Amino acid sequence: MPHRYLVCLTSVFLLGISSSIAEDSTAKKDERYPFRTDFANAHLLWYQPKKLEFPPHHSDRRISGELVSVDYILRKGQFRATKTGELVSFTMPPYAYVSYLNAEVDLREVPLGTFFLFFLNQDEDGGFTKLATMQEQFTMDASHSFTYKLDEAKLAEGKLLTTKHSIKKNQPDLGKKELLVTKETRVWKGEQQVKLEDLKPGDELLYNLTGKTADKPGWCTDIWVGEETHQLATETQRKKYTDFIKTRGVAGWVEKTEGKSVTVTLFSGDAKSFKETFGADFVVGKTGKMCVANEELRTWNPPVDGESANMVTVDKAPESGYGCSGVRVTVTVSNMLEGFRKGRVVRLFAQGWKAQDQFYGESLMGYGFGRMQNQELVENVAKEYPEQFPFRTDYSNRDLPWYKLQPNVKPPPFSEHVITGELLKTDAAARTGQFRKDGTGELVDFNLTPEGGVQYVNADASLADIPLGTRCRFSLYQDEKGAFTKASLVTDEYTRFARNVTTMRVVDIKQNGEVLFVAHQIPEVKDYNGDMKRPPDIARGTLRLDSQTRLWKGDREVKISDVAVGDVLLANFTGEQAGAPARCTEIWIGEDTHKQVSEGQKKKNAERLKAEKVAAAKK
User: Fold this and answer.
1) Residues 108, 109, 114, 117, Cα dihedral to 10°
2) So what's the architecture of 144-240 in CATH?
3) Which of 32, 37, 233, 324 is 20 to 30 A (C-alpha) from 156?
4) Do domains 17-138 and 247-350 have the same CATH topology?
5) Crossing angle for the helix pair 271-278 and 227-246, nearest 10 degrees?
6) Strand, coil or helix: what is 364?
7) CB burial class (10 A; 0-12, 13-18, 19+) of residue 205?
8) pLDDT per residue as tens digits for the range 482-504
9) What is the 3-state secondary structure (H, E, C) of 244-274?
10) Alpha-carbon gap, residue 478 to 468, rounded angstroms
11) Parallel, antiparallel, or unpaired for β 539-544 and 61-71?
């Protein structure tokens, strides 16, 4: 399904990813694994994720890349593969976790642009898009007790000469490593940021990277100096995550039910730390509250719709799979809720934890006004209740046929297949056009259905109004040959954001203004007390600009240098192709500008319709 709120690419590129970014497996066989791995068993199939099974270690394909965008709410993201430059989309199953600074964290904690190793399992189409875990350089080194002893700092050349070693394992020399630094590299000692010039030979370093490609080693974004600093960085992240979990409950899936007993295996990417942190909370005899959640780990209304839970057994669960905490809890409840069925996801609030709602936008319940304006944050019924749909959707029912358009019958919700691509040509009079699919480059000829519509900059439009080269979302149905060529709706990205009352706020500007780091935000809403509150950001992304990008403020075209941190944006983009990353075609700065451009398109469309009526009357 298309990604929500990610800027440069919203489709999961299924075709060609595995073949283009995969490394050749060796002829080596390893009988420990009944599936293919990155290092052996090329003659076997890759592991296929199964219901109620944590993916075994080494069942994944590991692909390195730079994190481009993240969606906190729907647990999705994108990275640009190191070796090929391809943009890869990933989703996080319920058990998936993120490691950062050698601690389990939420996606909110991870800086965009950071180099990561992504552990990916196959999806239903064979693409490697299902994340098991991800870890960056600090974690990869710290988890194996590696550090880098500084031998010499050549700051005039932007280099640090180091020796990789492990004091704990008594491995004094694991090879020389040259680290590249820039004026933007941050250096940390304890809680303080210090200067590069403060580094001294003998310092023990850990670092994170950005800018790594097939032919570039990348440079350090951050450097942590000394073992105490390394431990502090990890402990700080673990504490943040502990607080994060206590306000939402520990997630797990239901293994079985019997009478009013529910057995749940809890999720965690660090079983040892989980037991140290929460071991005293999950013991026989203690009570808590169990709440229904979905596979994105979102809850509805924990203070009201949870059930008191008495812990009757606490057992050890196998830790051989990604995301298993090693803890299995059986609880008794007063009432068996529909969401407590086997295979469903729940959250457990331990005794003494306050069962509370997730924030507006993350919660599936919501409060205040404007909730239904954002259709991409509300409960997705096609995903949560697939049995209600007698046809295939973009979210479920893969074994069913797609809905077939019927004359004079409005197609039902979720019956369309959404494909994204760059608009190449149009014939507004004939209501036809052609676009290039994101990722695959396939050319698709389409025609608007009789009732089909076009929206551009959040207003009704004609195909002729959308500038060629604009990336659009095409809601498609099958033609007589089974190809998706009948479009019920064509929209640009500006419209998608605006219709979902979402804007992008500039949080950082890099590369002389050619890369903008943005946070996605939704409007203020009323809380239970009737007070207006700004919900936390729901996602983050990056925008690429170049000399062809046009920027508008009011009715005036401005320069890239006029963009400032804090500016609120809406934008349109090109498509995304191998070797040609998506870039912004146009950016509109400020809510007044957004209103002005939409009103201008509405006026233009009204004049067009009026002219068409006059022309029809003359005939």
Assistant:
1) -90
2) Beta Barrel (2.40)
3) 233
4) no
5) 60
6) coil
7) buried
8) 999 999 999 999 999 999 999 99
9) HHHCCCEEEEEEEEECCEEEEEEECCCHHHH
10) 24
11) antiparallel
